[in-house]
């Protein structure tokens, strides 16, 4: 049963070819914590196939009538190939990321997806991490690379390395909204040692 703990709402953007662990782990842990979260397809169709041929039916699409990025406090970018390039090619999403950052609202990206934030100029001078294969993009775009940290929080931006760090990434989003006690409760619930 979902017990809502905050009025803030999170959007996890789902592109064809995403790494499903990186998106759905966030959704799962936020649900457990009581943080409202929608899966949002960047395609007109709500049904999206992941990089491992898993079909996800999203809550919303950015093409839906009445959809607004402003309905969300935090925008989350899962990684994956070709999921990350597909997110990067979505102009409305990229514009919303820049707008969110300019307003000081939080952003989160994992695996290859922090490279999108870097290319948009949103990581310049900030501590960040990503999948090792994309860390050069962060450096080239002026980020302070934390190559060995699984999750990095710099003010309102959360970045992480990949599928193996997805739970830690999701827990930092929980911490952002609900603090340490909620993180410990969710950790215990999923038996994360």
UniProtKB/TrEMBL annotation:
Gene3D superfamilies: 3.40.50.880. Residues 8-175 form the DJ-1/PfpI domain. Pfam families: DJ-1_PfpI (PF01965). SUPFAM superfamilies: Class I glutamine amidotransferase-like (SSF52317). InterPro entries: Class_I_gatase-like, DJ-1, DJ-1/PfpI, Prot/Nucl_acid_deglycase. NCBIfam families: not_thiJ. This is DJ-1/PfpI family protein.
């Amino acid at each position: 049963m979902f017990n809502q703990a905050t009025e803030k709402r999170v959007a996890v953007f789902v592109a064809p070819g995403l790494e499903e662990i990186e998106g759905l782990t966030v959704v799962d842990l936020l649900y457990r914590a009581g943080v409202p979260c929608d899966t949002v397809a960047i395609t007109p169709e709500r049904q999206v196939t992941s990089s491992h041929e898993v079909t996800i039916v999203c809550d919303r699409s950015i093409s839906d009538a009445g959809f607004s990025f402003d309905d969300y406090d935090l925008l989350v970018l899962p990684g994956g190939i070709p999921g990350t390039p597909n997110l990067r090619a979505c102009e409305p999403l990229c514009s919303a990321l820049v707008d969110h950052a300019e307003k000081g609202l939080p952003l989160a990206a994992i695996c290859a997806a922090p490279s999108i934030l870097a290319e948009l100029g949103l990581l310049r001078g900030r501590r960040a991490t990503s999948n090792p294969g994309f860390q050069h993009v962060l450096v080239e775009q002026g980020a302070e690379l934390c190559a060995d940290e699984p999750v990095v929080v710099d003010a309102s931006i959360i970045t992480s390395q990949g599928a193996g760090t997805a739970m830690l990434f999701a827990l930092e989003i929980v911490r952002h909204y609900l603090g340490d006690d909620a993180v410990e409760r969710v950790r215990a619930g999923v038996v994360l040692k």
